[in-house]
Amino acid sequence: MATIKLSEDKINVIKDICKSFGNKSGEVINVLHQVQGKFGYLPAEVQEVIAHELNMPVSKVYGIVSFYSFFTMEPKGEHPIDICLGTACYVRGAEKVLDAFSRELGIQVGKCTPDGKFSLNTLRCVGACGLAPVAMIGEKVYGRLTPDMVPGILAEYK
Amino acid sequence: MINVTIDNKAIQVPEGTTILKAARMAGIDIPTLCYFELDGMNFENKPGGCRVCMVEVTKDFNGKPRRNLAPACATDCVEGMEVLTASPRALNARKTVLELILSDHPNDCLQCEKSGDCELQSLAARMGIREIPFKGEQTTYKKDTTLSVYRDMDKCVYCRRCETMCNKFQTAGALSGVNRGFPSVVAPAFEQKLGDSSCINCGQCVQVCPVGALTLVDNIKNVMDALADPTKKVVVQTAPAVRVALGEEFGMQPGEIVTGKMAAALRRLGFDRVFDTDWSADLTIMEEGTELLGRLKKALAGEPVKLPMFTSCCPAWVAFYEKNFPDLLEYPSTAKSPQGMFGAVAKNFLAPKMGVKREDLVVVSIMPCLAKKSELARQELGNGTDQDVNFSLTTRELAHMLKQCNIDLNQLPEEDFDNPLGQSTGAAVIFGATGGVMEAALRTAYEVHTGKTLPRIDFEETRGFQGIKEATIDFDGFPLKIAVAYSLANARKLMEQVRNGNPNGYHFIEVMACPGGCIGGAGQPYHHGKSDIIRKRMEAIYREDSGKPIRKSHENPDIIAIYKEYYGEPCGHLSHEQLHTHYFDRSDKLEATK
Amino acid sequence: MAKYKMHILICGGTGCKSSNSLQIIENFHNILAEKNLADEVQVIKTGCFGFCEKGPIVKIMPDNTFYTQVTPEDVRRIVDEHIIKGRKVPDLLYTNPENKEHVSDSKHMDFYKKQIRIALRNCGFVDPENIEESISRGGYEGLAKCLTEMTPEQVIAEMKASGLRGRGGAGFPTGLKWELCAKNKADQKYVICNADEGDPGAFMDRSILEGDPNSIVEAMAICGYAIGATKGLVYIRAEYPLAIDRLKIAINQAREYGLLGKDILGTGFEFDIELRYGAGAFVCGEETALIHSMEGQRGEPTLKPPFPAVSGYMGKPSNVNNVETFANVPVIITKGAEWFSKIGTEKSKGTKVFALAGQINNVGLIEVPMGITLREIIYEIGGGIKDGRQFKAVQTGGPSGGCLTAKHLDTAIDYDSLVAAGSMMGSGGMVVMDETSCMPAIAKFYLEFTCEESCGKCTPCRVGNKRLCELLEKITNGTGTMEDLESLRNLAAVIKDSALCGLGQTSPNPVLSTLDNFWDEYVEHVVDKKCRAGVCKKLMQYVIDPEKCIGCGKCAKGCPVETIQRTDYIAPGHKLASFHIEASKCIKCGACINNCKFGAISIK
Lengths: 158, 594, 604
Prior knowledge:
The structure holds three protein chains of three kinds. Chain A has seven helices and five strands, in the order βααααβααβββα. Chain A has helices at residues 8-20, 28-39, 44-54, 58-65, 87-91, 94-105, 150-155, and strands spanning 3-7, 79-84, 118-123, 135-137, 140-142. Chain A has a four-stranded mixed β-sheet with strand order 3-2-4-5, covered by helices on one side. Helix content of chain A is 42%, strand content 15%. The termini of chain A are far apart. In chain A, a hairpin with a 2-residue loop joins strand 4 and strand 5 (140-142). Chain A is α+β, with helices and mostly antiparallel strands. Chain B is an alpha/beta fold. Among the domains of chain B are: 2-103, Ubiquitin-like (UB roll) (Roll), CATH 3.10.20.740; 119-216, 2-Layer Sandwich (Alpha-Beta Plaits); 283-335 and 425-558, Fe-only Hydrogenase (Larger Subunit), Chain L, domain 3 (3-Layer(aba) Sandwich), CATH 3.40.950.10. Helices cover 33% and strands 15% of the residues of chain B. Chain B contains 18 helices and 21 strands. Chain B has helices spanning 19-25, 88-103, 119-126, 161-169, 204-208, 220-228, 259-269, 277-300, 315-324, 338-354, 371-375, 395-404, 426-429, 436-450, 488-499, 531-546, 557-567, 573-579; strands at residues 2-6, 9-13, 36-38, 43-45, 54-59, 70-71, 81-84, 144-145, 149-151, 176-178, 185-187, 214-216, 233-238, 273-274, 309-310, 361-367, 391-394, 468-475, 478-486, 508-512, 589-593. In chain B, the strands form six sheets. In chain B, strands 2-1-7-5-6 form a five-stranded mixed β-sheet, with helices on both faces. A four-stranded parallel β-sheet of chain B has the order 14-13-16-17, with helices on both faces. The longest helix of chain B has 24 residues, at 277-300. The relative contact order of chain B is 0.12. Chain C is of the alpha/beta class. Chain C has five domains: 6-109, Glutaredoxin (3-Layer(aba) Sandwich); 131-336, Rossmann fold; 351-434, Roll (Ubiquitin-like (UB roll)); 439-528, NADH-ubiquinone oxidoreductase 51kDa subunit, iron-sulphur binding domain (de novo design (two linked rop proteins), Up-down Bundle), CATH 1.20.1440; 541-603, Alpha-Beta Plaits (2-Layer Sandwich), CATH 3.30.70. Chain C contains 24 helices and 20 strands. In chain C, strands 9-10-8-7-11 form a five-stranded mixed β-sheet, sandwiched between helices. Chains A and C meet through helix 2, helix 5 and helix 6 of A and helix 1, strand 10, strand 12, strand 16 and helix 17 of C.
């Protein structure tokens, strides 16, 4: 057991969120959603504080974080890029689009560019199958993508 | 009762009986892997995950065959059900599932600590696996060890027994299922080291692990080296629960008492003196009993005092309250455990008597326990450079060591322990079973407190496998309220009560971490879920007690002698220095940084 | 809606929003204000119209004009021409691909002709953020009827008589499910709506929640009344922010209107709804896993029995239905079980919403009566295969379903016929594939999904699916053997027979159905080391035809791994030496083929 070190501001944010859910361990998933919403990701110390506040083993918190794909322990880039790999997008060539992003950015899926500008991830269906293949950069959806459109799209953010 | 037919054999079973149990009643043994139950000891692991026990239900509640195979361990029988446990379809699935498990297993049986005791190995042998048709990626994880537990999760079959033990039975919360899909594994948070987690080293995860994923930290070589070192004198102490279980490793029936043979065996291994932790258990009772009476007296006089007092012999329990109840550290008795007291007496009292420097006296303990390996390293149980107890071996390690040295317990005569740290009473023996420390303490505390002879020696109310036992003992007019718990989940319930003002007014509480107490310890021979084995060990403990000429700790002549010669009186100055300890807040703490 | 003369309905669903429909709405507001028409013409942001292929969609009422692929710049023309002068804007109308005629009324469009919209009845017609619009179209009448005219037993009897089956997967009869839960006495029961749509390629639940959240609120209250529950919980994907917002608005408005809360409609009936968020786990579509997730645990399924109807959320009797199932409930109550049960086939009543996607002309969300054929869906509603290519397969049921072929095109589809054909209804994903799809690669795609989404609890799913995936990898990279194909089939059968939950038990379906229907293609991969669809990279080679190559070098410039070099061969008639691709270094990205304007590069 150890000492958990985190900035006071962050501790207070987490404490407030936990408190708003009555510090109940059954609400841990809701708490994780909100905390990730605030910080963008869930590093180990953050999970430890949550466990501490909800009076539950941190192993359980990590068990949950590592189970659900929505939760991440990796920080995201300034412009998170998500490529839809749902079936509709897949059969319309999403993999090639993904390869193009990966090549242009020089990073693998799940990683962040060294300058912290872009991170590249995949997701399953954003529900815009009519526009397949689809990618999201931040909140913005790009549809009917082809690999040669990728450099132009990235240029918007440089 | 309902009627079921299993492999064409019609039987009647009570409602709520699983197919697995019904089959066993019919003499049909369906193999299992993840399933693990300790009958009557509050432990059940039935995730239905391994899919080894799949059977074909040819007639279900609706008179039709079931579409899919059913897990026998977790499917209840229904009236008129017909089951085939070894149909070609069931066998094919069972074999394929086993092949799949083996395809993600290192299969390094020859070097594996668990070899010979491995449930997966036995299953593979039983199912006649000759090749593994599936080749592919295997999961790998970092190896990890504490002083007690070694983890090699490459061997994990994800049965979740350890997770259930850690969370449901002990509520230690060190382990959880993490990740999902193929990389799933049971691990501490962030796959950190077990030693950095809330693990209390009870080792029950090791006791229930079907494979070699969780094993004990083997100290045989350390002890062998010490025995071979001509500059050292090596003495050994053996805990109460070891003598009722060691025989199992040599083909004897569970519950056979091998005290004399064990003493003989240890002597053959070359230990210079063969002593008994039972002796120091008697010493523990003197210290702990006196401490209890002291607190009671203060309470009666209206002085502020921490009650109830908790026992402190179980190192997993000590680690548990240090990590989880830092606000209640003044409640447990400050008496060291019998292992610890023995070490202190050996290094401080015995070494000069034997004419050796304490550094040249190697103290080895034989314990039913994995937590003792961690306990002996506590800084307050040594002088800074030399620990009071140097090595602790489990019952299983002792058996291995004997076998390595060609010593067959069956062939040995019965011998006595050496003195002066060898003579013990029945009160000390029962330390090995849940409720035993309580009963031993009551035997002494009653007589010391009242000055009267006990009307009855056996306290039936502290015995048996109930998870929490409560009783009020008439201390000559004073109603002493006691509780006895095993499994730290039960202990947690009692601690929460104490935290909330002790509404039941307990005065004294005994806690042991393991199922049934030390007889179910993690260092004992694997029981593989056969709770009868633990029951037999408990019966043996009480048999040994009732056969002893002296059954109260304060009547042990060697104990009386050592107080006279060395310690003066229980809870006196010297015993405080050597036989008592203190506890540390080891809980997680938040620290705000800027 | 009375005071306005005209209404402009603009799709605000996720698909159209992605193509700037919100800007269209803003432009309408601005331009109408500019022309002083804001009081006469109402602009409504609706849910999905279904015809996502042609989005953004703008619909003008009352004349039911259906404009497609509208841009923000088109708004001024629509206002000037249609709103002010009453003349339709022809180039924005839908064009019938066969006779190239403009169709203005959606009723006459092939896409809508064969659809019967029950679950989607309000999607695209109401402002989902305004409960009054919902009420004006019959919303909450079903709830009122239940509370004032029917006993809970009668509600259940009506549901049973309707023949409605669960729309989320296996098709368990809804009325029976309610009855089982109603029978169990408890101090608290729960109505749970499964809105954790996880099937990649299906988005009907999202569209219903975005387009008509009130129907779900109403249906859950009806269910609560029937089974004796006062609490409802919606387990919704956190990735659906718009659906979450709209559902929250609907719940709040329903509370304000006394349609949720204590004493609903003055009848003494109490019911309220809370949201719980999913966190990205397909397995949580399985009801026991969903319940564990709502309780704040890892979403691992547990064995049934006990069924949720006996011991569900927090150990209390719980009834779990998915969004589309609930969306049918209010109409069944108002129009009656008899009406509903007339639609569909003998064992599958009513309609089913499908998310039609893939290599098809009209991608979108459709609702069709059970018993319709795949041919009708693909060729009439879907408008046939994209770019005039050949139909190869249609995948239904998502990762739990299978691939059907041309021989199944005339099967009347319902729960049972799909299972008989080796697939399943699932949540209603329907992905159409043409000859550019490789079936072993498709099977691998689904298995990769299952492996990623497996909770890991049981061996067949955790290890078995991994091994299936590895076998498929071998096959698609050209190192597979005929024994591997046998192994694949046997292992798939055991997983189906022995996995713990529905996800595991159905996960081998994509493998088994493609083995059954596309055996030749597997054999080609294994024996001939050939992928006829040109998908499996390891089995293909990019080659430059030296006779066609003019030596411009564009291919070499665009090659990310610099594996294209000039040769010293100049083809007759060309001035520059041709190029050559060094096969061993080629990563088969396809950049060269896209860059070559002379058709000199091909895949062998």
